[in-house]
Amino acid sequence: MSVVRAGPWMNLKVLIVGCGAIAQQHMEVWQKIPNVHVIAVCDSNERLAAKAAGAWGVSNYYTDPTSMLTHEKGSIVDVCTPPQTHMRLVLDSLSNGYHVLVEKPVAPTSQDVATMIEAQGKACRKVGVIHNWLFEPTMMRAVSVARRNELGEILAVSTEVLQTQDDPMLSTREHWCHSLPGGRFGECLPHPIYILQAFLSGLNVESVVVRKVGDYSWVPFDELYAVFKAKNGMGAAYLSFNAPNYSIFVDVYGSKKMLRIDLVGQTIWEVKRKIANRVSKGAENLRLASNLVSSTLRSAILVSSHRWRSGHETYIRAFVESIVRDTDPPVSLEEARENARLIEQTMTAIGQRAA
Questions:
Q1: Distance (Å, rounded) from C-alpha 181 to C-alpha 158?
Q2: CA 219, CA 216: separation in Å to the nearest integer?
Q3: Does an H or E element contain 238, and which?
Q4: Which of 49, 182, 213, 255 is the 20 to 30 Å CA partner of 224?
Q5: pLDDT digits (tens, 9 = 90+) for 47-94
């Protein structure tokens, strides 16, 4: 592939497929990046496509992605459709010479992702998968601390994703997520699993427990707890759709110290080894309280100063940079295939348990 060098003349043109809520988030990011322009949008719902084009100031809209890909001359296709459609859209975009940005889950099966990898190699174009929680400010700090070996040996990583029963996807019977393997969990599981991947290697599912608490007849279970074995520790993922409020927590346990990350509140606690005597315990408690206050203030200052960037924005900017500088995408298809494999293992474990 020819190297595209950065310069004031750079003018990347973007085509968006899918005009739902997630596309709105992407559009807000594209509008912030210099020398990048959305030139066309597409949705099978013509009313939605026309509405999005009008709201975003985009000249052209389509209902057929094949028509858009052949009639427009752009650089990047941004895929914001349900995951069941991703593989075909990625393959068609690559065959038409486009780089591709695609939402998670990248595809329902790891074999689908393997097919994308083969097509990417032939097309010599980049495919970036949006694992946006990894690019939230606090998570980037946590990964950086771990890679500098400040935590010592990683012993375990635990993730908690807590959502309410009125979650829009879960509570809508006709939502596309319910046709995925695992339903709403198949849509959500990539997030906690790719966080585990960031800290642990050689992951495999050890056990999965599910149960149903809520009343939605179309939802077979709404609580899930999965345990993973890794070469360098253990992992766990707890997902609930019965929580009183929306929360995401990540605990990273190391031999030297531990991190507790609140991805919604954007705070991070650093907990050192437990101190035995009472006076030292009190001092440590004060240090932890001070750490929480300073972390909260740091987040508040970033937001109020307009320097705050969401995980989506940071990722999309990094993907554009990978095209401009001809470097690897921030998350590769190979990483996404491993993510899909672990989700398949989780779904298989649920099936075996139900049997």
A1: 23
A2: 6
A3: strand 233-240
A4: 255
A5: 999 999 999 999 999 999 999 999 999 999 999 999 999 999 999 999
